[in-house]
User: Fold this.
Amino acid sequence: MPIHDQGYRRYLGGRAPRGRAWVVIASAGVRTLLGKRAFLGLLLISWLPFFVRAVQIYAAANLPQAAFLAPTPLMFRQFLEQQEIFVFFITVFAGAGLIANDRRANALQIYLSKPLTRAEYVFGKLAILTTFLLLVTWVPAFVLLVVQVAFAGNFTFFVSNIYLFPAITVFAFLQVVTVGAAMLALSSLSNSARYVGILYAALLFFSQALFRVLQFVTGNTSLSWISLPFDLSQLGDAIFRLPLRYDTPWVLSLVAIVALVVAAGLVLERRVRGIEVVA
Amino acid sequence: MAESDPVVTLDNVTVAYGKSVALREVTASFAAGAVGLLGPNGAGKSTMIKSLLGFVAPATGRMRVLGLDVAASPLDIRARVGYMPESDAHIPGMNAVSFVAYCGELAGLPRVDAMQRAHEMLFYVGLGEERYRNVETYSTGMKQRIKLAQALVHDPDLLFLDEPTNGMDPKGRDEMLELVRDLGHNKGVNLILSSHLLPDVEYTCDHVVVMDKGRVAVHGPIDGLKQPRGRVFELRVKTRTADIEPFLERLRAAGLDPHATDEDVMRVFVPGEAGARELFALAAAEHAQVRHLRPSVPTLEDVFAHAVGEE
Assistant:
């Protein structure tokens, strides 16, 4: 029997309104990553500092001899700094292949032949990475705040440090969007996820090393804006109302980060296309 | 849009990649049904399809697909068309049914419907038994089929098929052509089949647009184009020297159009009322012996060769 005799029916069902394709892309990407055991393991490990901090808060609230462990606003800032190593690994694991793998498999022309814009595609991919990054930054930090209130049995700490929740939220989102945009832009430059991961790590370490050399030469830290991790640290300090650790004005760090995000946007605009023109 | 309206129209469209012009002031229309987009490699077929999908913006001209302006409504168009790209293309890390269902969801189908349609399409294209295999392990022929399945999953009104039989073995190629023919003739799907293979277009399509060097060389219903506005002869001659070129030049000077076939027999298009007598006379004038002369039925190959001027 010819195979076409097995039938082709016209579709008479409904269709989702335009503009939701990014949700489809994001949810498929999240499902795919959650299906990888190594990634699940990484996620679990990245929550270990949260449990340590939760025990610290519990002890401070319930054991008089552990009162010196009482949470401070600095503790939340330090917690987010501790999570930076997991942000790095998750960015490389989940982000490097987001566009590179699609380029390798010529998937862009499949995506862009469907009723979705290039912006939706990029937003969907960004949503995958930001979901997991927020899961190891904003979510545990926020839950720690809730844990503090629960173990203390009052809102005293929360109210006296009312800026903490917005500070956690602003810093986590700033970090996640910056890192996500940078990684997506790098991912769009290659067909190899492995190469993208190495490139990302090299750029971070090189910029940090360069700053240390310049710091040694100039004798001050006013050039910290050349390194993304240091820009984020500087802005983190400013957001959490802590003394700035480098001589760079925090506004300059913010400008550097905005410039990086804009540059990433321009790269993505050029690289995410249904057709690649080789001049 | 009336049924008799063309599904695609191009009006003075020019597309360039830098300094290289891929489409030159193309004006054409594609009728509803199955239309072949025929031409040698580099003729501009794929560029035309990618322009119609909105991947490439034309330097000049306007295009309409299913009555919608490509520049103004690219997403509305993409919701109603299916595209089977020429090169290998899939979403990495997915099995076949997940891939096709995902494409359905991207096109706006609810998840349950997309999954149901994915199973149906995979059975339709002959991959039903292989639908839980990772697409990356598929053979070339299977990848061609799954590209067709993802193009069909959202039930498009118009299908763009870019070289759908590329890399397929003879059996797979025949089955793919059967599918394309079935879609165009029995399932009511309008389709544009881009190919450099004449038999594929002739078997599956009713209309053809022949392209050459970025321009439309000829277009119309295949049966109409094959209608003789002259006659076609199979001809084999023996010339005094090994060089047959002077004889061919004489034929061309007389307004005849010879072109070679795979064998040593050439096909000669003789316009107007002239016939075998004139061919004998021209051969005699060039001192060539006619070893074989037989009237033949015009084929799409003749139309193609005549249009693009190939020998």
Chain A touches chain B at residues 2-4, 6-11, 13-18, 20-21, 24-25, 28, 32, 97, 101-102, 104-107, 109-117, 273-275, 277, 279 (CB under 8 Å). Residues 19-271 of chain A form one domain. Chain A has one domain: 19-271. DSSP finds 14 helices and no strands in chain A.
